[in-house]
Design a protein that fits this description.
Blueprint: H1 6-14, H2 17-26, E1 40-41, H3 51-61, H4 78-92, E2 104-107, H5 109-121, E3 127-132, H6 137-144, E4 149-154, H7 167-179, E5 184-190, H8 202-214, E6 218-222, E7 251-256, H9 257-260, E8 269-272, H10 276-286, H11 293-304, H12 306-334, E9 339-341, E10 348-352, H13 362-374, E11 377-378, E12 380-381, E13 392-396, H14 401-422
Parallel strand pairs: 1-11, 3-4, 3-5, 5-6, 6-7
Antiparallel strand pairs: 2-8, 7-8, 9-10, 10-13, 12-13
Helix pairs in contact: 4-11, 5-6, 5-10, 13-14
Length: about 425
């Protein structure tokens, strides 16, 4: 008999390459002073652009009281949920006059939220549809506790660089699942999109919501980048602001402090579920996932300071835009054959290296990825995140300037080595 269970073996097998590389990079991460020979991490989606301001604010509101010594409410602290309802009304312009804190759960990041929702709305063996490319840690999220899996619905026209989003890709994905005798239970809708940085308007997403309602599918609307929109872009419209939903009881909103507030270390995610009953049942399992009272009250204190919060969100938007433009320019200056697809939001560049490959195949893409990693820079290759067209890579730009500059120098060296090895 083995040391651990068959279930543990399945979980180990399901672990995304994204998570495995994240662990490798974090154990030897580049820092210009502390670890100059480490791996330059341009692959993990974290935002360092307002680090000093965040540290100062977190220190100013950090405190301790007797309630922090004890177990939290398994739904999340009511005062925190009430404040989040108000905050979402303020920043997303919710048309649901008053969001209901009893339809909200506070969980361990969006990953924990998706794992929890998978258990609540799907049975083992069921599948969720997702547009690809996508953040493939979702594969692990839906499998870890619920034993679900994802059906990739490739965005159209990937060979031209368009990556077109429409309801048709989900219809095709649904038919593919049925043909394989799988039961679709929902659609994961990531908006703004990771890794593309595209924003999908209401007319586009509504057609997906209507298709889901027709098939009685749940929709998980992951809006984790909803406040990380660049300046002078079309505004992002949250699903919370839609005047009506085709199937409100099966429509669930997710958000986290990890991206828009650059606080991934707090591990605080939010579910605004379609019904209070989902939250009532979910709170039982969420006892394993709910963050501490201390961190919830600390984050509530930040949101209570509306003046600081509004100023921070504006500052973050300015710095995101400036850093995106600088990083995009630097990457395209490496070689005229390298193209960065235009983005509207998020923390990443979606880079087309196809013309740098000796052949446009996934084998050559992986060789280039290996060359980058061997030279000490980590960016994510497209195959790992479900891209159908070889040669695309995702690079995080929301890091310190020194890290980007060092990473680009290492990428230049890697490209030279790759080219010489292909002659």
């Amino acid at each position: 008999m083995g040391i651990y269970s068959d279930r543990a073996q399945l979980m180990d097998d399901d672990c995304s390459l994204l998570l495995m590389y994240k662990a490798r990079v974090q154990s030897n991460q580049y820092d210009e002073k502390q670890n100059p020979d480490g791996i330059c991490n341009l692959g993990v989606a974290e935002n360092h652009l307002c680090e000093e301001e965040l540290i100062e604010k977190m220190k100013s509101v950090s405190t301790w009281s007797s309630q922090f010594n004890y177990y939290p409410d398994s739904s999340g602290e009511l005062s925190f949920r009430e404040r989040l309802c108000t905050f979402f009304n303020e920043v997303f312009g919710s048309m649901q006059a008053t969001l209901d804190p009893h339809r909200m759960l506070i969980s361990s990041g969006v990953s924990g939220a998706i794992a929890l929702l998978s258990v609540l709305i799907a049975d083992a063996g069921d599948v969720f549809l997702i547009a690809s490319p996508y953040y493939t840690a979702f594969d692990f999220d839906v499998a870890a506790m619920a034993r679900n899996s994802l059906i990739k619905c490739p965005l159209a026209n990937q060979d031209t660089g368009e990556f077109s989003f429409s309801v048709e890709i989900f219809k095709q994905g649904y038919d593919n699942a049925i043909a394989k005798n799988l039961r679709p239970r929902g659609i994961i809708l990531v908006n703004p999109h990771n890794p593309l940085g595209d924003i999908y308007d209401e007319a586009t997403t509504r057609s997906v919501l209507e298709f889901a309602a027709e098939k009685e599918l749940h929709v998980i609307a992951d809006e984790i980048y909803g406040l990380s929109v660049f300046q002078d872009q079309k505004p992002f419209k949250s699903i919370l602001s839609y005047t009506s939903l085709p199937d409100p009881s099966r429509t669930h909103f997710l958000w986290s402090f990890s991206k828009d507030f650059a606080l991934s270390g707090t591990r605080v995610g939010v579910i605004y579920a379609g019904t209070t009953d989902i939250c009532r049942v979910g709170s039982k399992l969420n006892f394993l996932l709910v963050p501490s009272i201390a961190i919830q009250i600390t984050l509530k204190s930040i949101l209570d300071d509306r003046e600081w919060t509004n100023a921070y969100l504006k500052l973050n938007q300015v710095r995101l835009t400036e850093q995106y433009q600088k990083a995009k320019k630097k990457i395209e200056q490496i070689d005229t054959r390298i193209h960065v697809r235009d983005s509207q939001a998020g923390l990443f560049l979606w880079i087309d290296f196809r013309l740098m490959l000796t052949q446009i195949t996934f084998d050559e893409e992986h060789k280039l990825f290996d060359e980058f990693f061997h030279h000490g820079v980590y960016i994510t290759n497209g195959l790992v995140i479900g891209c159908s067209e070889p040669g695309w890579f995702r690079m995080i730009f929301t890091v310190k300037d020194a890290w980007i500059d060092e990473g680009i120098e290492r990428m230049k060296q890697a490209l030279r080595t790759y080219k010489s090895g292909s002659l």
